[in-house]
Structures are given as structure tokens and as C-alpha cells.
Amino acid sequence: MKVMKVGLLGLGVVGEGTWKLLRSNMGELERRTGVRIEVTQVAVRDLAKARAKIGDAVPLTQDGLDVVRSPDVDVVVELMGGLNPAYDWVMEAIAQGKHVVTANKALLAERGNEIFQAAREKGVIVAFEAAVAGGIPVVKALREGLTANHIQWVAGIINGTTNFILSEMRTRGLTFKQALAEAQELGYAEADPTFDVEGIDAAHKLTLLASLAFGIPVPFGKAHAEGISDLTRKDVANAERLGYRIKLLGITRRTEKGIELRVHPTLIPAESLLANVSGAMNAVLVNGDAVGSTLYYGAGAGQMPTASAVVADLVDVARMASALPDHQVPHLGFQAAAMANTPILSMSDVYSAYYLRLRVKDRPGVLAELAGILAEEGISIGSMVQEPHGDEEADIIFLLHRALEGNVDRALERIQSLGFVKSKVIRLRMETEL
Amino acid sequence: MKVMKVGLLGLGVVGEGTWKLLRSNMGELERRTGVRIEVTQVAVRDLAKARAKIGDAVPLTQDGLDVVRSPDVDVVVELMGGLNPAYDWVMEAIAQGKHVVTANKALLAERGNEIFQAAREKGVIVAFEAAVAGGIPVVKALREGLTANHIQWVAGIINGTTNFILSEMRTRGLTFKQALAEAQELGYAEADPTFDVEGIDAAHKLTLLASLAFGIPVPFGKAHAEGISDLTRKDVANAERLGYRIKLLGITRRTEKGIELRVHPTLIPAESLLANVSGAMNAVLVNGDAVGSTLYYGAGAGQMPTASAVVADLVDVARMASALPDHQVPHLGFQAAAMANTPILSMSDVYSAYYLRLRVKDRPGVLAELAGILAEEGISIGSMVQEPHGDEEADIIFLLHRALEGNVDRALERIQSLGFVKSKVIRLRMETEL
What's the CATH number for A2-127? Predict the structure, then answer.
């Protein structure tokens, strides 16, 4: 049987999962591919810890360059995370003519364009199914399964940590802090959770999804990222009462003026499939002009689900390696020469529906004045709820129809400066057609 | 730009959709593939009707053999449906060394093994994404995206007609007949709906899914198919009240003794994702040992969604055609020499949970006798509801824990013969962990 030799960079959670999966499912993999996929070299920081995990079967080194330069390695699997030394080692692997499989979304979101260009020049594959939504084969769906479509938009729950926290806030009435503490206890959130809860991890993944969907260079740094740390129990409960749920969504959409690229808490109808994705699960909704909306759901993180995607990429490499280079699936799903330079829209150019909540002095004329400002900015009110708060004040909730965010910004600035407005105006985006 | 020449067999709903999609999205397809995909020959029954649809751009014929033998055709797309002449023309296309793309589930379920063998011998690709679940790229997910996994089971809503009917029965309280009439009016059901409502179409698709999931030859004729035409409003409402919904599921599962392969109405928890797939939509849940459960959702039929899958297959052919034959994705996802001969289980060897409903004389001892029979057959009761019906009778509903169907059959036979049982015992299967 043919052998494909794998050099593994990193033996953390996902690295160990990949090692285990290649062994436990070796038989099924050989039945599928007719190829034996063997790990022949491993680079790790801590040699003793690695020995304890995988024994003496494979040479270990602390220097990834030993692995990527080894004649005993056909494909390099990078599972270290972080930018350095991952970037240097991946670039050297490519320079050595080795195919690369990686789960490193930060690396690809930040340096993907250079990496893919180097790979094209050397005619090697860089596969990254595991970098977006873990075990869900959504990169493959976008690059291949839906290839006949103009993709119109993608909207996804692509961070399990925040989806777990939001699920706990909703079902158990916890505050953000309480739910975060629980997520940390259960291992769903890191000690420093910033990356997840502020939407940065989701923005990295969305950045890759946008490139795959629309055939644009990886638009690093252009995503609007807003997290869930300011979200209150009150707004979670209000959303529920109004027939919605709040999810941290990554949304990217092709419009006439450019591409929307944004991560933020979003109200979506409670009966929608996305709203019913709970716990640490992920789901990505993709809309194409021919196929309509399709959804991909599964575990977006975790040792074995992520390893499932890494190993699927290895099988793809085994299969595609012998195709003519210009017949191989392009890294980003489009021919390099055909990438578009469609602009990414700023948030003020984005259209969305909105949820607003504010506290006001409860006196005649308040509502008329608020409604007047919204009307003047061309914003139409879908519905309104008013609730007394103490003797003299009231909470008002507006659900606004789709409007230009720049107009909403202006309206909010004017509303915030009104004398009778007693709180910061809370503004959440809302998508009613997911 | 390279050109791939397509011969089209059939210009019905999906054929016309494919024709339109190749034109409307030509630019995006060229950006993705670097290849121009051109229809160069078309075979149709009605030449005049075809001319009205596509004009004079392409030679038309009534004989598919003209198309498959034409030197001006690289790939044959079969969208006629039915066994004949589809089978002969596809086999001749293969004999001519042409790649084949087909949406014909009946053809592949019944004659797939011969077709795939002929294709292997000639080293050509037979792609069939459109044959299962329309526009949802679930064939690709099973063959490639989840290739690292031992697939444990697949459970899916893979017939849109019946899902539409069941949705209408549940939400509007219609009878099966009323909902069917409405489906026919809206074009979701054929004049003769047997194929859909008796589960035969779903069984064809499930047969292909089982082969893809487990690496077995296409197990034609081995699926248990039970439709929805006997389903009553009463049972639909009972399911709802107990926290379940009834869906026509195709289920295939790997067990120690063999493979379960069955289509039947099934109670599933109302909050599950599958239960929330409504109208004519499809969804397939796939469980792998590494990735866990993943779900694929979208339009399972219709002109443009199905065309989306056909054209994706054409792009795959364009890409894979230059790979070494033993590197191409195998037709059924496993190497031909590695197909297993795992037996398909008869229904009496299947394990399931159950819903039972029966009418009894309302007198002391009835329940004890029923519970006694179930216990003797090793069947454990999950819950029980009793409702008076008139003065002297009562309806009893049992929810049974997982049990061997053979035991349940025996218990039902004994119960049916009891003097105090006044109705046919209704038995529906139930899956509590989807």
C-alpha cells in the first residue's frame, strides 16, 4: 500500500487527537483511500510530555524546521496555533515543496494571502477545514459542494464558547459573568477569555468564510467584531419575550456596494434553526443563488471533531496531489487570477434591523419625540413596548425595521442627548430572515 | 480557457435548471474552475418543446446514443429519471469512456453496483450528488468531509413531499388526505403520489446513503419502507402533546450484528433540529465516531437546488479528471476492493423505542394484563397515558423504551388477540436521541 508521510507540528489537544484518530481509524482510512497515512516526525515544545503521550514510535524534536525539512515527510500538519513560529515553519514547509494542513485560523486570517501565494508558486496544497467550525465540513461545502452558486451571504454561530455562555444566560437566567465562570469551570472558556467573548476568534473564522464565499483575498482586519461581555440578562429575557433569541453571529453578505463583514450579538427568530443551536455547538447557514439556504451543523471545537477535519484534509491531499495543479481545488475556492477586489463595507454602510432599549422619564410627549427623531432619520419602527419602572420612569423597547446603520447611529446620538433619556441606549442588531 | 463539453440527457425541470445555471453563473464558474463548461449536445423526447426552451444554440436529438457517442461530448449528464432508457444510455456513455453525472436515485439504487463497476473498469467518474437530498452537498460530506470517521448512523428527512404533508397535518390539523391534496395543488406531490408517500423514494436515497456511510455495495431492495398514508390526525396530535413530532425518517445504523436500513414515520423530540425541519425542506444527520453528530440542511428538491448539485458534480469532474484514477474519490467513498459484505438486518432484529395506541374496554385488570405481556417479552414501559372514550372504553398510549422489534411484534400479536382490545393496535417507532 502507498504511504503518505506526515510531519506533525504540535501535540496539544488537537495534535494528540489527530495522532489518535490516524491510529484508531487506520483501517477505515485505508478502505477509503487505499493509502496508509503515517506520522513520521513530530515537533513539540515539551519532549517529555510528548513521549508520555505517544511513546517511542516516532522521532521527536523541538525544532519544527527539522520536521518540515525532513526527507521523511510528504505533508506537514501544523497544529500549534499562534503566529510564531507557526508562520515561519509553514512557509519553510511550502518552500520545501511540502503540502500543508493547518487548523490555525489566526495564522490564515492574518497571513493567509502570503501563505496561499507562496503555496501557489510552489504548486502545493494548503488545506484548512479544521480552521473554521471544527468538525463541520463547511470549507468543503463552500469550495466544492456549492461551487455552482453565487454565494449571497453566510451567517454562522462559529464560536462555541460564546454560544455556550449565551445558552446558559437564556435557559438559566445567569449573568454574563456567572455563565462565563461556569464555562471556564467546564473547560469551554480559557482563563483569559477575551479572544472568544469579544468576537475576535469568530472574526478570524468569518474572514476566511468571506474569502471562500466571494472569491476575495482574505480581508484581514476588516471585520467588525463586537462581543457579548456587555450583554445583560434583561436584554436576553426581552429578546425571548419578543419571540427572538440572541446569538453571536458572524455575518458576511454580498451587496451592490460591497461586502458586509461583521460579528456581533444578534436577535434572530426563536423558531429558526440557528436559534436552536445550543451549548457549544456551531452552525453555518449559507445562502446561494441557485440552492437557496443550506445549513451545516456540528461540533465547532474539541479534540476529536477538530481532528476529524484535519484527517479529512490529509485524505484530500492524498487524493488531489496527483491532479494537475490547475485542476486542484484552489485554496480559497477561486482561481488566484480571478480574485475580486470587492470592497468591505464599513458598519455605517450596513443594513440591519435593530432592537433598542432605553429608560426615559415617564411624561407626555416622550414617545412622540423619540418616534419623530427615528422618522427624520428615515428609520421605520416595527414594534414598541413600554414598561413602567418605578414611579417616574419607564423602559422603552423599539424593534426597528431594516435601516442603514449610519442613520441609526445618528438617531441614537440625538436620542442619547435628550434630557428625558435616563440610561445609555442599548442597541442590538436583529436579523429577521435567517 | 479550457472547455469541458457536456452532453445533456433530458431537459425536464432539472435539465432545464442545469442549462440555465450553467449560463447564468458562467462567470462565477470560470472564476472558480478556470474551465468553461459548455453544453454541446442535448437529447430530449419532445424536440419542439426543447427548442422553445433553449433555442437553436445546441444540436438536439431524440436518441441519447447520439449524445453519448458524440466526439463533441466529454461528460454525460443524465437527468431523465426512470430506469429505461437511462440505464442503457449511461452504460454506453461509460463504455465510450465518458464521465457521467446523474440525479437518478432510482437508477443508482437499483443498478448502481453494475454502473459503478463498469465505470471503474473504464476509469471514469460517476457523480451523483443531486440524487440524494437535492441541493444539500451530503454525498460530498459523507465521501470526503467526514472521511476520517467510522460513520455510526445516518438519519434523515430525505423526501420533501412527505415532510410537507406531515408539517401541514401537524400545524393545521389536516388529515393525510387533505394535506396530500394540498401538496398536489402546490406541485409538491405528483398525481400518483405512491412513490413519495409510501417511502419508496426515501428508501432509494437511504440505500445510497448506507453504501456511502458504511462502504457496502448498494443494498438495493433491502430497505424496509413504510409510508405515511395510514397516519392519523390523532397520532400526530398525541405525539405533539407528548413532546414529540412525527417525521418520515430514513435511518441506517451500523450495529454489531449488521446494518439497520429503514424508512418509516418516527416520533422524535420536538426540540431536536430534525423535528424543526419543516415544509418541503430536507435534512440529514450523520454521526461519526470522531466528529459526533453533524447536520446538513437545505432544499431537497426543486429545479435550481437540484441543478446546483448537478453543476457542482460537473466542476468536480473537471477537477478530478486529471488525478490518477486510484487517487480520484471512489464512487461510493471506499475503494472497490475494500467494500464490506456486512449484512442488512431484518426489521425483527432492529432496536427502537415505540409509541403504541390502542382502544380497550375500560374495566379493572386491563392495564395489568397489557403490562404483563410487555414485561414477559422483555419490553420496558417508559410512560403511559389513559383517556376515557365514551362510557365503557378508553384509549391507552404507551411509550416504550428501546426494545428488539421482534419482541415487540410478538407482544403486539398477543395484545391484539385479547378480548378487551377494541381497535387495531397502532405502533409507531420513536427515536429519542436524534
Answer: 3.40.50.720
